[in-house]
Amino acid sequence: MVLVKDLSRYEGAEVTLAGWVDQLRIHGKVAFVVVRDGTGYVQNVLVKKELPGEVWDLAVSLSQETCVEVTGVVRAEPRSPGGYEMGLATLRVLGPSPEYPIQPKEHGVEFLLDHRHLWLRSSQQRAGLRVRSEVEQAIHDFLYERDFVRVDTPILTGSIGEHAGTLFTTDYFGEDAYLAQTGQLYVEAACPAFRNVYCFGPTFRAEKSKTRRHLTEFWMVEPELAFVDSQGNMAFQEEFVSYLVERALERCRPELEYLERDLSRLEKVKPPFPRVSYTEAVARLQEKGSRIQWGQDIGGADETLLSEDHDLPVFVYNYPTGVKAFYMKENPQDPSTVLCDDLIAPEGYGEIIGGSQREDDLDRLLARIHEEDLPVEAYAWYLDLRRYGSFPHSGFGLGLERTVAWITGRRHIREMIAFPRLINRLYP
Ligand code: 4AD
Ligand code: MG
Questions:
Q1: 185: Cβ below 6 Å to ligand 1?
Q2: What pLDDT was estimated at residue 296?
Q3: Ligand nearest to the CA of 412
Q4: Which of 122, 162, 246, 427 has the most CB atoms lying inside 10 A of its own CB?
Q5: 324 C-alpha vs ligand 2 centroid, how far in Å?
Q6: Centre of ligand 2 from the C-alpha of residue 220, in Å
Q7: Nearest to residue 364, comparing CAs of 406, 335, 344, 404?
Q8: What is the mean pLDDT of each run of 10 residues along the chain (428 residues)?
Q9: Cα(257)–Cα(61) distance, rounded to whole angstroms?
Q10: Residue 209 has what pLDDT?
Q11: Closest ligand to 406 CA?
């Protein structure tokens, strides 16, 4: 069986391929059946007088998404998307599809999400998810080429990774277990074993917010770098993000064009990215009319305001201690802030990276755990990392769906994962 993407190799030959009916058009005694096989679309041309009656009758009765096997001769057709079409000779139905629920008309988003298992087949969804797949591969390639070791961290955890507010708790044989909010604490433990490490997997937040930037289950890649400070961390992040964008441009151009992404904006994404301290960001936001006060977290609307000043992603660094997680290193120049950075994507796509230098001083880390009212016992192992060969290190987490939403220009991150988990959605 041949694949649509390889048709150019078979010009003039009779081939058989299998796929799903995307479209049927009948113009009197000629019909066109467009078949999608996952690697592309091919138009099959049928001429009534050249075919046995039963083949014609079967073809013109095909409904959307019927699974078919088609045999025919490949010929060049410059007007066809891949440059080739097939003159259909025989046809076999492998799986009928009566009354396919998604019709080529406008459906509401809730309807489409209820039919997500079928919606995946549509061109727009296919394009977005293919870019996601390429970006995931690019993440692995970038880190592999730089000698990072991948460490798979647990999803069931006993210690709170970020903060208590957004935990999914489950019963673990009579004990509470939390679904991982992050793999970070565990990759920190793997650093002294391998130096530079990363984890990449699903993470969970019981976000009550219903926004286009929040999922309750999202994928995050978390590199951790030994002997790197906050400055080095940001330099690494801008290289990383630029590489991911470049790979999407290089290998997913047809998908990005299909999604009508303004590619000139992506082509500008190269280091260095602008850097703004939290304190400067607050002043700038106040000038723009925001009511943010020093000490408060920068919310989604304010992130969008900040991103308006830049074509590139922008780093906001050194937030107040009070709005950030317990593990971030105190800023020696200003102990009311921590050595951290958020990377805000352009065009209002929000925070795509959260990173920091880690607190490597045992006493200060312990004090922060107490301040945050976290259960110290659960962190005994994590504190050991500061007892036995503590070392300066930094790392970050990049949210995959937000990054892919920005790269593809899709507004809502629910389309960037095959089966989104949202506050009101566990189906399908
Ligand atoms: O800023 P966050 O919470 O950082 C951490 O979890 C650190 N432990 C990472 C680290 O240093 N190893 O989350 C990191 C990124 C965010 O910048 C955002 O892109 C994404 O994860 N993210 C979400 N994406 C979708 N839905 C949500 N509810 C998200 N929460 C965070
Ligand atoms: Mg964050």
A1: no
A2: 98
A3: 1
A4: 162
A5: 8
A6: 12
A7: 335
A8: 97 98 97 97 97 97 98 95 93 97 91 98 97 98 98 96 93 97 98 98 93 96 98 99 98 98 98 98 98 97 96 98 98 98 97 98 98 96 98 98 98 97 96
A9: 33
A10: 82
A11: 1
Nearest CA to ligand 1 atom 27: 214
Q: How high is the pLDDT of residue 104?
A: 80
Q: Please check whether residue 45 is in contact with residue 85, taking contact to mean a CB–CB distance below 8 angstroms.
A: yes
Cα(192) to ligand 1 centroid in Å equals 24
User: Distance (Å, rounded) from C-alpha 106 to C-alpha 101?
Assistant: 12
Distance between CA atoms of 292 and 239, rounded to whole angstroms? 31
Structure-token pair, residue 330: 């105190």
Query: What phi and psi, each to the nearest 5 degrees, are found at residue 43?
Result: -90, 130
Residue with tokens 């593990």: 327
Paired with 75 in beta bridges are 85
DSSP code at position 291: -
The pTM of the full predicted model, rounded to 2 decimals, is: 0.97
**Alpha helices for 173-252 (secondary structure H):** 184-194, 230-251
Can you say how many angstroms the Cα of residue 378 is from the centroid of all Cα atoms in its chain? 31
